[in-house]
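Re: beginner question about structure tokens

> Can someone show what the tokenized structure looks like for a real chain? I only ever see the sequence side.

Sure, here's an example I had lying around. Input first:
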Amino acid sequence: MDVPVTIKDIARELGVAHSTVSRAIHDDPRISRETKQRVLEAVARLGYRPNAAARGLVSRRMQAVGLVIPGVADMFYGRIVDGVDRAAYEAGFGLSLYLTHGERRRELDALAQVSERRVDGLIVMARRIPKKVLLDLARQDIPLVLLEPQVLGLGIDSVRVDNRDGAYKAVRYLLDLGHRRIGFIAGPKGQRESQERWQGYRQALAEAGLSYQPELVQPGDYTEAGGASAVQRWLQLPPARRPTAIFASNDRSAIGAVTALQAAGVPVPQEISVMGYDDITAAAYSRPAITTMRQPIEEMGATAARLLIDRLVKRREFGYQEVLLKAELVVRESTARVSEPLEWERAEVPGA
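And the corresponding structure tokens:
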């Protein structure tokens, strides 16, 4: 096994003090540009790697950030992790994952890690952490960034997507295709982004002069099974009262909706169009491929990591940033212009 190269080895190679090498590596302004260049060339040539543990003892930093997230099996969360990891690695930081599976106890346990200095700061994507706990951590100057926070305006760095705007654009697209009976599969109750997508749905309908019809809104839970259950309830309605298009709060619900429609012999999009939200990988490979609103998922994670590392490295103590990202429309095969109703269907629709 090769013996690791040390700062003293580089100093001996260059004939300088080891303190000079250390200062050059850390970009100390007291070291001339020429000396820094010589040191960096020797670092690359000899394959020097800094000892993270020793560096942490000196700087009181572990060069690691933590990510508190419900899980990684879901493709959405997996891509968040990928974005955080890439940005952290580029900045020279390691990443520690704390999977909570949506359990409040595990979310609170994860927050304790930064208090115990096992990581330098935390990116938190959690549903059940009380507002008071987050504010207490912020008052202790513990570096935090919130991803899709459930409560806004806490004075803590955060990154989120404009869900209301994304849902509004989705429904506007279906309206432009001629659809007027647009169903909505909601997300879990109590989640801010679910509420915002419902608000965007209602806003688009109101601006089009369409009244809100509760029978066109079905509960959901962001799963394929939830999407399929919503469709099964709609199919119990007379044909003229069914939606001609469905906007699902996420792609997994949309995929479940398409599966249920196909199982019932209802062609998509010829009879009913279906649209999702997120643009997970599976949406592009479904049959038909799912039209969706693309969330900048990896960008969300990377932006959160950069915000946190910027606060750590630059020791930014004052002010906070709330980054608002936008979703964009991705048109695929699961949506089409509304088909003309048959004569018997037209007669059943009030006002037709």
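Each token stands for a local structural state, so reading them left to right follows the chain. The longest helix spans residues 297-313.
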